[in-house]
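User: Here's a chain of 373 residues. Predict its fold as tokens.
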Amino acid sequence: MSTSNTFPGALAPMPDAMSAMLIWPSPEPVAPPRFVEGFELFETFARDAGADPAALAADFSALWDFVAAHPELLDVPETAEAAERFLGNAIAVAHPAARWRFTSEPEVGTSTMSVPVAGLLRGIIEHPEQREPFREMLASWPQADRDAEELDALRREEVDIDFVVAPVPFTRPVLAIPEFVDESGRVIHYGSRWAGGSPPEDAYSRVTHPERFAPVMSVVDALVHHLETWYDVDVDRRSDESGARVFHLRPTTGAQITLTGTAESVFIQSGALTREYAPSCTCDACDETAESVADQLEETLLAIAAGGLREVFPVGQRRWLHTELRTPDGGGRSGGGEPDPSFPAEELDDAEDLLARLPDGWWPAWTLRTPRP
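Assistant: Prediction complete.
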């Protein structure tokens, strides 16, 4: 590896796509580089323009202003690539934990966030007014990493949960799935549209036949009936002003659940701050089906009732939320990040007080009762 007077560390070649692939048997692991070589053309460009490359590398705001003032950097591909590498190395100076990697393109970052350098170069030139938001992001990045480490530690915790499961398993009703066709009249096979490959780019912004999720409401009805049959829970059923069906489940112990169902989705509110949609996304690329949404609903509602919901808030200085769902069969999922921005500050404070009284954030299971005749 070579060295440079501009950056405080050894220079390595730019990682490529092959270096990110798993090779078996694998060679000795190679740590991702902090600094990469190949930025010399930008150094020459900067000197010719009267700037000191070392000063630019140490002051990202000054580097931003210099790049923004020289849009001709994009005119020559070789110079643009050198500028991209210099920018990425400068990010690693500002945030020493950042490392280079290659996903679909070269980028530099940590497990919390990553910056594609080609997009950054063009973004600086096209939107120089974004300097302060980017600088603030750089300044907050180390704390985001520390908060992410706290979330990871919560996810790795192993706990024994005394699940309370209904003596009779839930039986999903048979879903009446209608047939849907595309613009050419061909039947759409949702759930297997992309045959294991990647969906087309426009599929991420396209939603066709969101009404395909309407049969899920029969599963909601069956789940609510199952829960109120076997657990000590009061259920309010109503329709709101938009026609959506609302179910409010208030158990004598454990986390409450509110379900708001339409022909296109079911909104789940539970505990203090847990919020999720089923499906989480209706776009064509995600290719969700009524069956996959029913799976999500069953897993979520039955796990909450059995005592498998955890909420920890606040996590770290950024006051993130950690949610976790464990199922009696050993499955589950977890997530973390900012709470839903719709929560007012007072409600977040109330949630913090409430969750602090739970053992490590775990909600108790609902209480079983003798089934109704």
